[in-house]
């Protein structure tokens, strides 16, 4: 499912309701061994409907054992949006471990990986791309990184995205996960 801010189909506008509905759709039939990807931006109706917060995301159906969910949040203050316990730096080491994470109770056996566009205390920038379209800076950097080198590890993607963002932005991308990431594990996208 793709949500877009093109005005031709309101059913697929990235509203708060539609973004949460899309997340429910992607996990509803998840099975062990599945590798899922969810990319979210700021809801177009956030001023009226509100922001998407951690509690909204934890109302989504739990993932089954052995399922992998990769998430890209390209929105302001998104660093800990999923409250994942393992937080990484591009320098290949664990920055922080929060043992009391709500994620461990919600996703006890699933592997959830979050690429967030910035820390909890930063705004997330955007850029104008071909044809005058607006794209989140993190989304653009993420696509550029994986297009240039599609066989990177999670930590390599984080480092590459950070280098790309530093050229034009003042945001620091974040990587976190529900379980420790093997530094040699290839990014599963």
Automatic annotation (TrEMBL):
Transmembrane segments: none annotated. Pfam families: Peptidase_C14. One of its GO terms (molecular function) is cysteine-type endopeptidase activity. Belongs to the peptidase C14B family. One of its GO terms (biological process) is proteolysis. It comes from the Eukaryota. This is Peptidase C14 caspase domain-containing protein. Residues 11-178 form the Peptidase C14 caspase domain. Gene3D superfamilies: 3.40.50.12660. InterPro entries: Metacaspase, Pept_C14_caspase. It comes from Suillus plorans. GO terms for cellular component: cytoplasm.
